[in-house]
Write a structure and sequence with these properties.
single chain; six-stranded antiparallel β-sheet; three-stranded antiparallel β-sheet
Length: 167
């Protein structure tokens, strides 16, 4: 079992606290990424969708996981289990320093997550306190005008990485 932390960053202009709509542990937020088989190294052709609200029973033993999937190349089965409680929003301070914020941790058996895809369902707050809901980052940019702060706001160049965590 290996733990992978999905970490995100972006350029935030007059914005802070970029996170999923319902917070970092939003049960309805969908994470999209490809998986690479740890047995044969073959990546999945399509992105896999995971959310905290969807789980399946483990085939052996007790417990649940968020995904059970067979590698189409070698046939080995793997699981991905989401581990809430370790994420935090991307702040303007982290963004300005070029640092990443951890969003979600995944316990992976037989797979490695790769190529996270930014999509819909984000929220962010202006430095003046205005909240922007249902932000779509699928085009890798978001721009609005904050009337309360009387300034333009923008998210650009979102990027992500998966980091192996020590147990």
């Amino acid at each position: 079992m290996v733990l992978f932390a999905l970490q995100i960053t972006a350029e935030l202009e007059n914005l802070t606290n970029l996170q999923p709509q319902g917070g970092c542990d939003d049960p309805e937020f969908t994470y999209l990424f490809k998986l690479k088989c740890q047995s044969c190294g073959e990546p999945t052709q399509k992105e896999t969708a995971l959310s905290l609200s969807e789980s399946v029973p483990l085939p052996v033993g007790k417990g649940t996981t968020n995904l059970i999937q067979k590698c189409k190349f070698c046939g080995r089965e793997g699981t991905v289990t989401m581990m809430p409680g370790r994420g935090r929003p991307l702040t303007d301070t982290l963004s300005e320093a070029g640092k990443f914020a951890p969003l979600m941790v995944f316990e992976c058996r037989g797979y490695e997550p790769v190529d996270y895809v930014f999509g819909v369902g984000w929220k962010v707050q202006s430095l003046a306190g205005t909240t922007f809901d249902d932000v779509d980052l699928s085009e890798e940019e978001f721009a609005e005008y904050d009337e309360k702060g009387e300034c333009p706001v923008m998210i650009s160049k979102p990027s992500s990485t998966f980091v192996v965590l020590k147990n």
